[in-house]
Amino acid sequence: MKLISSENIPGNISDSVQFLRSKGILVSGTDSYANIPRYSHAAKSMKQGIWVHLNSQYSDALLLLAKPNAEIKSGLTEEQMLAIETEAKSALFKASSLFFSRLATTVLVLFLISFAAYTLFNIYKA
User: Reduced to 3 states, what is the DSSP secondary structure of residue 5?
Assistant: First the structure.
């Protein structure tokens, strides 16, 4: 995933995102996270531009921004882009689910150990 900074983007970022996606380049604007309350401050403060999700498409994205009628070879279909985005979201969900599951298990085990130690300490003390 590489960033094309706003200095290399002629015109509006959101229009350029739509243009690149129409040519089969998997991209998103840096303002994509600006409407998410938790990330809005960080999204607004980071460098503005376009994220090219596949490194192999970065040079084609730059070429298309410089020459809109250029021929590219790395273009994807809308279905391919949707499949990649869906797979990425699924992988993120699975990874976060696994992380929080392990965290909950660890907290539960620590609680049970603490409770057992407390109980044994009180029994031994009595």
Answer: strand
Q: Quick one: 8 and 31 in the same domain?
A: yes
The H or E element that residue 98 is part of is: helix 78-125
Q: What separation in angstroms does the CA of 117 have from each of 106, 107, 111, 120?
A: 16, 15, 10, 5
| Tokens (6 digits) for 39 | 């990330």
CA angle 114, 101, 39 (to 5 degrees): 115
Q: Alpha carbon 48 to chain centroid distance?
A: 16
Structure tokens that stand for 3 in this block = 């960033």
- pLDDT single digits (tens) 43-63: 555 678 999 999 999 999 999
Residues 20 and 32 in one domain: yes
Does the global pTM surpass 0.85? Answer: no
How many angstroms separate the CA atoms of 69 and 79, rounded? 23
Measured in degrees and rounded to the nearest 5, phi and psi for residue 2 equal -125, 150
